[in-house]
Write a structure and sequence with these properties.
ABC transporter ATP-binding protein/permease; alpha/beta; Rossmann fold; ABC transporter transmembrane region fold; elongated; 2 domains; four-stranded antiparallel sheet
């Protein structure tokens, strides 16, 4: 029996909507993939912020003011093009009167003016189109850079919760939709709007009676637009969310391709992506249905306008003796107004689609810049103090906060090494991120050398503290360039010294071109151990006073782990160090060990002291070392 996919609940799709999707899409649906899609779509509905229409309008107004000269020239050019277009019906009407009077000389003069007016309209219309597109592309280019810059500045936890697919859809799909609007839709809308305004002015000056007909049909277009545009806007917003969910599903499948192949999950992942794709397809089809309905409604004012201009023209000529040329001009004005009025509605429809993307882009740009320093406090030394620090992620099934770190007070002296141990989910990584300053606690204060991170100079904190996680990235390019990310002015000799300190100089010199060898994507592939050594060498070059290592040696085998442990010890020498220890051999060397469970510190002290207590740490050590 067919069932409505669960993903419909996230985007307001009905059973009929899903049944309208082509069979080749619906045939891949399963209950599991539907539930996964529903959950992912629901999550995407409240991920990275989406700006309101008013906020987006203010943002675009500010960008236009930044390009005030180009904006003024565009308005001037569009006005001239519209004036030329509105001048043509009058010239044609005068030509009709001249032909009726048999004045051949005047006819040649008017014919020349008609040709000149048409040529000027074509030239200025093309110029206005180019100006609008160029201005839009300059603004869009700046927005694209701002979105990427702000997305890269967002905390890692925010990106993890949002999903990379949502961010990717904003810098890919949303930018693409907006770019198409800037190239094609916005120039049309600008020129059409100018033409409608100038045409209405021309009709009023020709005969005020024509405005009665305009007053009759324009409200019909307004009603059609007010019925159609809000409905399509809601669908476009949902469509953008669905596209983000689809991107996330594809990325998850691609990034986990080895696991997918290992467990034969190809069919499940294909079904999952198919359901996410169906959501976007269904929403697109709903827009088509709305378009067909509004077109039917627009036919009514079109027919009324044509019949009305014929009737008014007949009455003006035969009842009031108006010149035939004036009536001809009136007829041209009215018939030429019908198409732009409809174009305004459908151009606004395309603009709404781009507007949905624009609000998503502005939502990221207009957030509080994580890269902006909250204050000017600077660390005085390498001490760390936590007072009443706790943290929670989101809400649980009962609506309560999911507490991952209970209130904690902690003092770490300059140069002291602290090890955090405990089972997975104990809160170790959360505490480490808070100490490093990459995660703001929900409650409490974090001081680095007396400087409150909530009011500190961000650049000073970044230079003061560094974090090395289990997952490190090797950037594409020469190895030397990758190292200089930590200190751009470092010499080749300093790079080699840093590599030597972490035990990486030998293999670095064996690369085809030494430290100038291309590494990363499409370059020389480094092993996981080498990548970790590279990350530690960056820390040596940066030379921070505080170092946080979040299970930086957890994934290596015994030989690799010993190499990395030695590299980590050498990197930490002389610094205040916090180690999230997966291997208890690291914890044994620390000055103090914090044993964590369920977001709390349940034991604290040096290695030998904790073993003597015979508590949680002693049991962990016994299990790990085989002495228990």
């Amino acid at each position: 029996m067919s069932t409505t996919p669960s993903a419909s609940g996230a985007l307001g799709l009905t059973r009929a909507d899903w049944q309208a999707v082509p069979a080749d899409l619906t045939s891949t649906s399963t209950a599991d993939s539907d539930e996964t899609a529903r959950r992912q779509l629901a999550e995407h509905a409240s991920l990275l912020p989406i700006a309101s229409g008013r906020t987006a309008a203010r943002f675009m107004g500010a960008r236009l003011r930044e390009h005030a000269v180009a904006t003024a020239l565009m308005v001037l050019t569009s006005t001239i093009a519209s004036l030329c277009a509105a001048w043509l019906p009058r010239l044609i009407g005068q030509a009709v009167d001249v032909v009726t009077a048999g004045d051949g000389r005047a006819l040649w003069r008017l014919g020349t003016l008609i040709v000149v007016a048409g040529a000027l309209q074509a030239v200025f219309s093309a110029l206005a189109w180019a100006q609008v597109s160029a201005l839009g592309q300059r603004i869009l280019a700046g927005m694209r850079e701002d979105v990427i810059d702000r997305a890269l500045d967002l905390p890692a936890q925010t990106m993890e919760q949002a999903g990379i697919g949502d961010a990717l859809s904003r810098v890919a799909d949303d930018v693409d939709v907006t770019a198409r609007a800037v190239n094609n839709v916005v120039p049309t809308l600008v020129q059409t709007a100018f033409f409608v305004v100038v045409t209405l002015i021309g009709m009023a000056t020709l005969s005020p009676w024509l405005l009665l007909l305009v007053a009759l049909i324009v409200p019909m277009y307004i009603v059609a637009g007010r019925w159609y545009l809000p409905r399509s806007a809601r669908i476009y917003r949902r469509e953008r969310i669905a596209m983000g969910a689809r991107a996330q599903g594809l990325l998850s499948a691609i990034h986990g391709s080895r696991t997918v192949h290992a467990y034969g999950l190809e069919q499940r992942e294909t079904q999952h992506v198919a359901v996410l794709s169906k959501a976007a397809a269904v929403l697109g089809m709903r827009v088509v249905v709305l378009v067909s309905r509004v077109v039917k409604g627009i036919n009514v004012p079109e027919n009324i306008a044509i019949a009305g201009v014929l009737l008014i023209g007949y009455l003006m000529v035969h009842g009031f003796g108006a010149p035939l040329g004036m009536v001809t001009a009136a007829g041209i004005y009215m018939t030429s107004l019908i198409w732009p009025m409809m174009m305004v509605i459908f151009t606004l429809d395309d603009v709404q689609s781009a507007g949905a993307s624009l609000t998503r882009m502005v939502g990221v740009i207009d957030t509080i810049d994580p890269a902006t320093s909250p204050g000017d406090e600077r660390p005085r030394d390498a001490s760390i103090d936590l007072t009443g620090v706790s943290h929670a992620y989101g809400l649980d099934a009962e609506g309560a906060e999911r507490v991952v770190l209970e209130p904690l007070d902690l003092h770490i002296a300059p140069g002291e090494t602290i090890a955090l141990v405990g089972a997975s989910g104990a809160g170790k990584s959360t505490l480490a991120s808070i100490i490093a300053g990459t995660l703001a606690p929900r409650h409490g204060r974090v001081l680095h050398g007396g400087a409150d991170l909530a009011r500190a100079d961000l650049e000073a904190i970044r230079a003061h503290a560094s974090i090395v996680s289990q997952d490190v990235h090797v950037f594409r390019g020469p190895l030397s360039t990758d190292l200089r990310l930590a200190r751009p002015e470092a010499t080749d000799a300093e790079l080699e010294q840093a590599l030597a300190r972490v035990g990486a100089l030998t293999w670095a010199r064996r690369l085809p071109r030494g430290i100038e060898t291309e590494v990363g994507e499409k370059g020389e592939q480094l092993t996981a151990e080498q990548a970790q050594q590279l990350a530690l060498a960056r820390v040596v070059l940066q030379d921070p006073e505080v170092l946080v290592m979040d299970e930086a040696t957890a994934d290596e085998g015994s030989t690799g782990a010993r190499v990395l442990e030695q590299a980590a010890l050498e990197t930490a020498r002389g610094r205040t160090t916090v180690i999230v220890a997966h291997r208890l051999s690291q914890a044994a060397l620390a000055d103090r060990i914090l044993v964590m469970a369920d977001g709390r510190v349940v034991e604290e002290g040096p290695h030998e002291q904790l073993l003597g207590r015979g508590g949680v740490y002693a049991r962990l050590w016994g299990a790990w070392s085989g002495e228990g």
